[in-house]
Structure formats: structure tokens, C-alpha cells
Amino acid sequence: MFELGIVKRNILRADRVAADALARYGSATVHEALGRVGLLQSYMRPIYPGGQVSGTAVTVLLQPGDNWMLHVAAEQIQPGDIVGAAVVSPCTDGYFGDLLATSFMARGARALVIDAGVRDVKALHEMRFPVWSKAISSKGTIKATLGSVNVPVVCAGMWVTPGDVIVADDDGVVVVPAARAAATAQAAAQREALEADKRARLASGVLGLDMYKMREPLALAGLRYVD
Amino acid sequence: MFELGIVKRNILRADRVAADALARYGSATVHEALGRVGLLQSYMRPIYPGGQVSGTAVTVLLQPGDNWMLHVAAEQIQPGDIVGAAVVSPCTDGYFGDLLATSFMARGARALVIDAGVRDVKALHEMRFPVWSKAISSKGTIKATLGSVNVPVVCAGMWVTPGDVIVADDDGVVVVPAARAAATAQAAAQREALEADKRARLASGVLGLDMYKMREPLALAGLRYVD
Amino acid sequence: MFELGIVKRNILRADRVAADALARYGSATVHEALGRVGLLQSYMRPIYPGGQVSGTAVTVLLQPGDNWMLHVAAEQIQPGDIVGAAVVSPCTDGYFGDLLATSFMARGARALVIDAGVRDVKALHEMRFPVWSKAISSKGTIKATLGSVNVPVVCAGMWVTPGDVIVADDDGVVVVPAARAAATAQAAAQREALEADKRARLASGVLGLDMYKMREPLALAGLRYVD
Amino acid sequence: MFELGIVKRNILRADRVAADALARYGSATVHEALGRVGLLQSYMRPIYPGGQVSGTAVTVLLQPGDNWMLHVAAEQIQPGDIVGAAVVSPCTDGYFGDLLATSFMARGARALVIDAGVRDVKALHEMRFPVWSKAISSKGTIKATLGSVNVPVVCAGMWVTPGDVIVADDDGVVVVPAARAAATAQAAAQREALEADKRARLASGVLGLDMYKMREPLALAGLRYVD
Amino acid sequence: MFELGIVKRNILRADRVAADALARYGSATVHEALGRVGLLQSYMRPIYPGGQVSGTAVTVLLQPGDNWMLHVAAEQIQPGDIVGAAVVSPCTDGYFGDLLATSFMARGARALVIDAGVRDVKALHEMRFPVWSKAISSKGTIKATLGSVNVPVVCAGMWVTPGDVIVADDDGVVVVPAARAAATAQAAAQREALEADKRARLASGVLGLDMYKMREPLALAGLRYVD
Amino acid sequence: MFELGIVKRNILRADRVAADALARYGSATVHEALGRVGLLQSYMRPIYPGGQVSGTAVTVLLQPGDNWMLHVAAEQIQPGDIVGAAVVSPCTDGYFGDLLATSFMARGARALVIDAGVRDVKALHEMRFPVWSKAISSKGTIKATLGSVNVPVVCAGMWVTPGDVIVADDDGVVVVPAARAAATAQAAAQREALEADKRARLASGVLGLDMYKMREPLALAGLRYVD
Which ipTM score applies to this complex? Predict the structure, then answer.
């Protein structure tokens, strides 16, 4: 359940080494390593391709058409954080632009993940401040109603607790609970190591059917080859 | 209310200097300068990133799956115009491709804003003819039923009167009434001047909370900081 | 009607020369040349711009959240094929990533067209393996339930028979029946030849109104010019 | 272009007899009688089936998540009016419930047409106050930012001028310009008279092919019958 | 692949007894009995609740905004048919109303399934002519461009061949290939017989966990009960 | 964060009296009484109108296309519960029909709220078992992959903890945290008492402008009346 009108200053951030390490594996591998949970809905898209980040979550709960709490959140950002923002009811307005990005970068933020719209996307691209959002819109917002900062939020269908690790790239956005960050990084590293070998074998023409030993289970399931 | 079967030849275009000046401020700043009205719905997206234009509107009202009126509109284009096209019921067909773009460019058009689909998008990108549309579709159109040219239309939720200024960039599309073009350009220039200073202060680490003097109104609204 | 649990090994591929030739005309011209049929829905988008391919269809029918049949399909791929994949009920999961792409490329596949999601899109771009999909999602899939390979499928609203030619570019995806591939290529070539001349005339300022002799039919339809 | 912060008190309502007469023909017939324009987008649906109304438009321009102007509008309602409400950016919140409906009914309003959400729909049904809306949502709204009353608005893609006639039923919502209300009612009456005869002939087994004399134009268009 | 401009007069209808029998089982049971294939997308909804029909398909391929072929189709209807209509590109216009319904009923049609919009829904309800559609819209259509009648079509994502059995109720629409109609009716009858017994046991408090013997496979899959 | 493969047997249900009392106020009033939070997205709709319930949440986390965990959940249901079901990635399949409803009713469940599809909706209506869902679909599901029962889930954008109170009616679905159930019921009762008086005054013709004392703040905000 959401709480409005609260800013929590002291949050328990995930282990820094693990939080930083997760970026290199990307959202797809981390999602697998975490046991196939933690994914935001696929309508969350990067405003420009190629960004790949991980960091600790500072969460924001916003009112529709109102970005007041993003200004409040800026003060809570520490280097290595990613801001994860949700809205209490659906909205596509442009909550965030180059001025807020300048402020977030000055505080050490690595990215913004927001279940709403943003604007100034050309400038954000030039500044290399990556954003994952639901929409792009020129429409700005007002500053009139309280939300919260650093309370648990639901962002694009996924629960985000302050301090969790957010991993985002061109494939999407995954949230890793702080307590599982180190184990997940380890599992992701193992997956990646295995994949290099598989990739080489597949490139040489070995079929997944044989490499993964799928022929027998497929036959058991009743697959018939016909001419 | 829409009228079908009409081409209006003499329209009152917005002041040329103001119409041309608005491009540099971009849609987000112009939307603010205009008092936060005039924005087309955010599903209108550029077919390639980086275009930023303004110009005077030649409007077109189209039938679903029928681009006849775009050919009629071409003759009404003057240098500095942007064609703003609406459809009487929703359609994603590709109304516009490289041949029409060649013709529009030969007439001096700067862009197309269309609440429907377009095609030949790779060629349009290579020609650097910017388009904002609802869809991209290979499906062409027929030429069978009348619409109108240079009547007021509703395009992506916004009223566009012939001669209005259309401003479009990666953030979206805004319509500025002809009579307010000069005042809006002035207001946009003022906003931009203020933003440069703000940007520098935010980059130096000043918080928006302090720069915008938000701490007192937040406290009055009841914001609580907890540890 | 779909059949589950079947892999058809011998399919009648379209004439290779025609199948290869269609790529250069692009989906919009091919769609016209085919008589304005054969187009997949416009929500099918390339994961990166600029790809333009044609090839013979190997079809796959998938279960929601299950990519088992893509592995089965890999073995049926021959050089020059494009895999066309449908799902029995709507799903946006990421069915396909860089490992499967490595395998598909090793078999000679030119592209994937899938009415579902894919992942590893940055890697796919770097590998230059083009994909047209409904979604991008980090979420992987399981391997538990049978679908089919090389049965007729409905992909994004269009019927695809194994061996048909698939043509895809930035404008969308078109399916050409195998038996009509050569005739369609010829018709597309004729269209393209005509367009070069038209383009030159339009660029010189000739209006489509005159070039296409539209003034009389427009007048007959009742178009009125007003001042 | 929209104006904010304005209430226009004296509006020119359409002829009362014509405005009242249009209800009986329903939205589909009126849309035809008006020349196939004036229709709101088809996502506008009645909250309960069976309502069929017409009336003169009192228009409201709302801010997202804010229903302040509906209270202002109540005072401008006269018996026989229908309130037509638009929002400056998309919102599905519940702007209207049984209390406002009580007030609107006390003023003589016949219906609400709103490009947003409403709530208390069971009570509204019991009160027999018909509403056409984009959404149903329990979420209430605040009262903080000005919009306008009785300015022209764009509602669900259609321009509504204060005093226009709104016609709504289970098929959708049509707007008839005040100046054309009488002529449209007459044209609708003629259409309806013709339809009674057609219905009887079709019920007797006469085919539309023959009644509308379509066989020759179909043959000319190239239709082939095959066995 | 679709063919335009063709009316096939002689189609092979499914066995009448089987086609008629399928209605009583409903779409969900028939979908299971058919092996979980054949379902149209779930956006196809009845215009009023409670209809439950089956019949042999007369198919129609329509152009966007053009219902000419529905008139052509009327002549091909035989008692016990259901018209299945697709459009070559997406459209929500109202293709069908009470006049066409009168004609269809006079020919013996049992229902319409259309991947587009319809209108006059109150009258259709009063006439008890059931329709499953994608949209409801007052907007009528023109009669200008050829489609086809009784060619295979893709309707809401599913292939429909003339003569197939269409089964529709409040849960959705399923297509049963003509050749499998009798076997499917038999399988559906068996399913239904089994369900009566299951229902009684579940109503008495027996758990599905026990009735379906799920406890062991769940334990094998690793399910853990915690307190 | 979600956990898979777990069934929690002992959950702390909200106070029974409060949980039962909330139904009568309905979702809109409860949403206000709770401080305007707790609302599921508005795409969650009742399968038939008129249901109005409250109860304690038994939560279920499902895999796409797989309803195994609903059978597991049945055993955890106690009289007065409402089952709240989420899926780990978007799915519209029909997870629930009359057999499961029979079992749920035998256990004392009052309703199902599911962020996916259901089927047998006519039977469910006849049984008077209310369901709020995202879709209706004939398509059944398999029983192959573990989810969880009675873990916290995100359902249609809202966090649901086992034991919370779910309130649902024609306006939508609201979740009340167990610890706040009694206070929310009290606040809702107060709101309702106030509304009766307001309703009477509005019905007598008093304007909300006066009853809520809005004229002064509107004037301060700059509202202008023009003639």
C-alpha cells in the first residue's frame, strides 16, 4: 500500500559492488539469474538506444500531472542511484526534462525509470542521461500535490523497494531486491560464462536440438516429423 | 465541425518571422510559453529522431484509406508551410511516401504532421523530410472520396486552423494560433533565457528545492521527513 | 486451422531468384505490386532501422511463453530462409535472443518475423540479424509445450504458408505467396521504373494534380475551390 | 485553440425544436444526415445500455485529475442541455459521480459526454442519468486548477462548440452544429422514412444487390463469380 | 493469401448436424475439444450478452470503410450460416446495421462475426440478431471497392475457410474446420459429460487438488508450504 | 519482489467486521476514505454489472497461460475471502471458469479479482459468482509451472498483501491494507453520512459552487466570467 506525504531519508541500499556489477549482464540475463521475476512491463522503453546501467533505487511516488516529488527526490540521490518513479494513476505527461536531469546528474544519479512521460529527449540524449519511460510528451507538469519519496512503489507492474537494484538496457528494466543483489550478480556471471561456450558451438552449426538434448523430450511430447 | 469537398486558397498565415522563430525553442518550451495548451496527443511520433521545425499550417482533411486530398493540398503549399493532416475516422494506412514528399519539398513544405500512417520512411529520412505520424505502414491508399484542404481540422486531439504555426520536434507537436505566434515566440525566448541560468546553478549542485523555494510550501502541504 | 505437434520437413520454397529479388523493392512497392494484399499489421516493427530483406518462409507456431519450437525450427532452416513465427495466444515475452540468432545465422537464416517479443536487441543489432517483432522484452521463455514447424500460420493478422516469400523493411512486412513471387517481382520492377520518372517530374515542380490528371475527376466529385 | 480560465455565460443554443427532435433518429442516422461528419471516436461508450438523447451543448474544458470546472459548469446548465467535457491531456480518473449528477439533473441536464472517466455508475444507472465516457474509475479528482466553461473544445477527436446539438445512443455520440440542426433533423426524418420501406422489402427476401441496383456496378468493378 | 474480386458460390459446408450441435457446448468447451486451437482474439465481443450460436461460415473480405461485399454476401447465405467478415486493414467503422440484419435474417443467417465495427446495436438486440465485433460505431461505410466472398480470410487472428463451423457465445468465438466438426462435437459432448460429475464433487467440497491428483506433481515441481 | 513455488498457509486476515462492512460503501467511497490510494487500474472490469463485495485477500501468483496455482489456492480459501490473482507477465487467457467457481464457492470465496482472462461468464453470472478481470477468453490454460499462493503480488498495478481487504463494484477494485481496514470503514461511513445531506441539497437546486464555497477560490485562481 502506498503512503503519501512521506520522505524517507535513510534507506538501506544494496551492496555497492553487486549493484554496480549487474549492469554488464543486462536485463535479460539478470532476469533469468533472479529466477525469472522482477521485470517491469515491456511498454517501458529507453528514450535512446544503447544505454545499459545498474544502480540503487531511490523511489518516487507522483501524482498525475505533478512532478513536485521529483524535486524532493533530487536531494535524496546519492552517487550510484537510479530514480524509480511511479504515478498513482496513469499519466503520459512529460514529468522530467533537461533541467531536472542536470540536477540529478549533479547529485550522481545514473538514470531515471519512470512509469509516465518525459520531454527534452534530444537534450537528454546529448547529455547521455538515460531514461526508460512509458511515453514522451512536451506537456509539462505542475507542483501542487504531495506524493512520497523512498516508499515502496509499483512501477510499470513491478514492486520497487528503496535500495533495490535497478538494471536497465535496450531489452527492458529489472528490479533486484537488495538482499539478493550479490547472489544474483554471481548467478548472472555464471550464466554469461556458459553462454560464451554455447554461442561458439551454435555458430559452428551445432543445433540447439542436440546441444540442449531436446530430441528425446520432444519425441516424448509427441512431436511428429512429416515429409 | 468539418466541411468536406472544399479547398480554401487564401488563408491568413501567421507572421513569418514568428513562425520561423518558434522552431528553435522546441515543442516543450513553446507549449509552456503558450500557457500549456495546443499539444497534439503523445502518440504522434517523428519517423526519425532529431528533426526540429516550425512553419505555417496548410490543413488537410482526409478520408480513411484515401490520400486524394494530399495531392490537392500540394498545390496550396507555400515555402515555409507545414502540412497538418487529419482523417475523419481512425486509420493507420500509409498515406504519404517519397513521391509526395518530393512534391511537397518542391513546393517548399518543411514537414508533414499526419494523424495516420506513412511509408517509405527510410527514403524520407535520407531526403531529410521530417514527418510526425501515428503509424508507419506499407499499405498505400486510394484516391476516391473528397475531403478538404485548408478547413479547420482536429489532428490527434488538437484543433488546427489554416495558417496556425505548427512546432514539432522529438518531444511532440504543438499548434500555436496565428494571432498569438509573435507573443508566444517572445515568451519562449524569455523562458529559454531563464533556463540557461537555472541549468548552470543546478549543474553546480544547487537543489531545485532551494532554487525554486519549495521547502516552505512542501512543509505547509504536510510533507514529513522520516529516518 | 492450426495443427500442433507437427514438423513438416519438405516444403515447396518460392523460386529463389524471385524470392531474392523482392528485397530491393521494399515492402510498400511489393504490397502494391501484389494487388494491395499480404501486409502484416503495422504493430510489427523492426528492432533496429535500415534492415531490408526478403527470403523464403520457414513458419513456426509457438505456445505463449514457450520457445521450444524455435529450436526445432532451426534445423529446418536453409540458406535464404526467413523464419515467420506466430503464437497461439497473444504474448509479449522475449522468445528469441543472441544465442538463437547465432544458430539461425549459422543455418543461413536472413531474418526473424515474430508476432511476440524478442530480447538481446543490442546484440542482435551488432550481429546485424534483423528482426521484426511486436514487442521487446527481457523475459525469457520455457520449453514445455509443443507447437509446430512449417504448418500454415497466422502472423500479425496475415496468413503465412511455408515457402512463401517474406519481404520486410522499415515500412513493415509483406507476405508474397510462393506461386506469385516471380510475377510480383516483375510487377514491382515495373512500378519502380515508373516511379523514377515521376520523382524527377515532381521534383521539378510538376504537381501530382496534373501529372496524375486528377483535376477533372476532382471537379466531377464536386470539389469546390473558395477564396 | 483552447482558452483557460474563462466561463462564457451567454451562448447561442441551437433551435430547441430541432435539438429535441434529433434524439429519436439516433446517432447513426444523424451522422448520415449530417453528411458523415461530427462523430466522436468510438471509444466513447455509454455506462449503461439503452439511453438515447439529444440536447444543446454546454462545454467544459478540464485539467487532468481535476473536476473543478464541472461544478462551475453546473450553474451554466439550462433545461435541455447536455454537458460535453474534454480534458487537456488524457486522463481516466472518475470526474463525475452521483452527487454531481444530482446537481446536473436539478439544473435540467439530460446527459454527460466526457472524454475521461466517471464513477458511481450503478447509482447513475438507477437515477437514469445517461453518461458516455472513455472510462469508469473509482478514482476521484481534486479541485485545484482552472479550465474553462463554454469555450469550443475537442472531445474524443471532435470539435464541440457551445450550443451545438449532441446526439448520443448505444452506437455513439455525434455533434451537430447549431446552425445545421434544423436541416439535419429534416434530413434524418427523410432517411428514416425511406428505411421503413427498405426494411420491409429486405424482410420479404429482396436482396440489397437488387434493391440498390448493385449488380451492374459490381460487374463493372470486375467482380467474378466462380463455382 | 487473400484474393480480391471473387465470389465463390459453391462451398463445402460442414455436416449440418455437427454444425448445429456445437452451439450447445459453447466456445470454451469447443476450443478444448478441438485441441486448444481455433480461437479468435479476445477483443471480439458480443454486442449483447447471452447469445450462443453455431453455424456454417460464409466468409467476407472487406475493404476499410466499405461494406459493399456484405451486400454481395447476403445472396450467398443459406439457412444455418454465420457470416464471418474480415477487413484488409484495421477499421472500426459501423459496417452493419438493422437493414443488413433484416436481409441476413431473411436469408437464414444466424449471426455475424466481424473484425470491425457495427451500429444500430439496440435494434439488433431487439431483433435478437447476435453479432460479435471489434467495435461499435455510428459511422457508416461506402460501397466503392471490391473485396471477396467465400474466400479464406483471417478474422481477428484466426483463419476461417468457407464452410467451417463458427461457434460463438459470451466467452468468445471459435472456428472448427468443416472436416473436424463431427469429431469435435463428439469430443465436446464427452467433455461436458465429465464436467457434470466434476461439478458435483467440487460443489460438495472436494478439492481440485485431490480430484485431479495434483498434490504429487506439485511436490515434484518443488512447491513448498510454509506457515 | 515476487517469490515462486511457495504457499503460505497462515496469513493475518483483516478484522472480519471491518472487512465485511466495507462492501456497502463501494470502491469509490472506500478509495476516498483510504486517502485516494489503493486502486487497481481501470481496465479491471466486472464480468456482469451489479456485484458489490468486500472480503479478505487470498493472493495467487500465476504463470502466463497456466492456472495450476488457482487449484492450490482453493484449499487456502476461508469463508469471506476474495481471491486476488496476478500473472508474472501479461496474459489474456481464460484462467477460471464454472468448475473452479464451484470449488471456490464451496470454500466460501466471495469473488475473484484476476489480472488476466476468465471464461464461462454466462454460467458465472447465473451462479452469481462475481469476477473482476482484464479480459474474457474461451482459451483455457495448462497446469505445468509453479507460481505461489499468499505471497504479496502486484495485481493491475496495485500491491496486494494476503489478508488485505479487497473492495469491488461496478466502479472498480480497491485494496485496503489489513491494518487500516477498521479506520477506513469508519471514514467511509462518515463520508457516506455527509453525502446524504449534500445529495438532498443539490437535488433542491443548491449549486456545488455555493455548497462547497468555491466562488472565492475560483476568483482567486483567476476565473473570468464573460458574456
Answer: 0.94
